[in-house]
Amino acid sequence: MDMKGRSIVSIRDFTHEEIASIVAKALEVKAGKWPQAMRGKVLATLFFEPSTRTRLSFEAAMVSMGGQVIGFADPNVSSAKKGESLADTIRTVTGYVDVIAMRHPLEGAARLASQVASVPVINAGDGANQHPTQTCLDLVTIHEEFGRLDGLTVGMLGDLKHGRTVHSLAQALSHFRSRLVLISPPSLRMPDHLKLELEAAGCAFEEVPTLESVPCKLDVLYVTRIQKERFADFQEYERVACAYRLNRETLAGACSQARIMHPLPRVDEIAEELDGTPNAIYFRQAHNGIPTRQALLGLVTGAIR
Questions:
Q1: Is 131 among the catalytic positions?
Q2: Which uninterrupted H or E stretch holds 208?
Q3: Are 260 and 223 contacting, i.e. CB atoms less than 8 angstroms apart?
Q4: Does residue 53 carry a catalytic annotation?
């Protein structure tokens, strides 16, 4: 698979074969192949929205493969503070680097950046829209755990309306004959346009309001936090903020054997008492961000083939 020069904006842009190839390449990198592949190359991390794991894992990925990193983690220290447009920022930065990783609060910002950039742009999250590199590391983690991606039953719990991680992951899993169980309060259900995409892809899914009403055994339970920053109405946020909390008591029935994943950060939706159980794989999931992003950086710059 030749991805040199290609931007990574949305998981929608990739076929089943391409997604499987990315997962395989990330596992190669994790096994020690392609050391120092990014020597002599420079990454710009442009984070217009807060991040810990995504930004640091991109930087660690680049540095550990011999590359260099420039950029910012606070838009107030960039020329955006002076009123510079996103397009002009991107046009300028492309003259300094080989690849850009960007997070932005506005949906569609990554697509715009990719259209004006002369180097590949990797979407590190654009509003409530997409988070394709998180999806890739999620798939790597699932593959490590089960030895496959095909035919698994995956529950998605929490804020499915605003959660860009579950949006991207649901679209990716639709390529692999997955069965999805969407668990959320009515006000936080998966957006209709995404459910239509799942139907068109032939992906089986059902919506239930509580963990207790999950109708089948789950292989994976993917938990998301209620995203306070996406709510215009604080009272609406307060009504659903404590809607779900996973602990030893609630991890029962259909969920008792499920591997628990979470894109992090967590607030109070997963009790710490679960951290040491065989179910909990969310910190290993987070650590897979480095080899996955190493693979993606290498692929889009042509350093890895």
A1: yes
A2: strand 204-208
A3: yes
A4: yes
- Among 6, 41, 45, 54, the active-site one is 54
Model confidence over 203-255: pLDDT tens digits?
999 999 988 899 899 999 999 987 665 556 666 666 666 667 889 988 888 88
**What SS3 class is residue 206?**
strand
Residues 141 and 93 occupy one common structural domain = no
137, 109: one domain: no
Backbone angles phi, psi at 57, to 5 degrees: -70, -35
Please tell me which residue in 53, 189, 230, 245 is annotated as part of the active site.
53
**25 with 106, same domain?**
yes
Whole-prediction pTM value? 0.91
140: domain CATH number is 3.40.50.1370
Active site residue 12: no
Paired tokens of 251: 């991890």
- 103, 175, 195, 262: the catalytic one is 103
Beta strands in the chain (DSSP E): 42-47, 68-72, 99-104, 121-126, 153-157, 179-183, 204-208, 220-223, 259-261
Give the range of the structural domain holding residue 52, as residue numbers without chain letter. 11-130+289-301
User: Among 131, 164, 167, 195, which one carries the catalytic annotation?
Assistant: 131
Given a contact cutoff of 8 angstroms between Cβ atoms, the answer to whether 152 and 204 are in contact is: no
Q: What pLDDT digit, counting tens, does each position of 15-50 carry?
A: 999 999 999 999 999 999 999 999 999 999 999 988
Q: In the annotation, is 82 catalytic? A: yes
- Residue that wins the pLDDT comparison between 126 and 59: 59
- Find, among 153, 197, 173, 222, the residue nearest to 23 by Cα: 173
Residue 4 belongs to some domain of the structure = no
293 is catalytic: no
Residue 279 domain flag = yes
89 and 123 assigned to the same domain:
yes
Does 232 map to a domain?
yes
- Residue 6 inside a domain? The answer is no
How many structural domains are present in the chain? 2
Of 175, 185, 181, which Cα lies nearest the Cα of 151?
A: 175
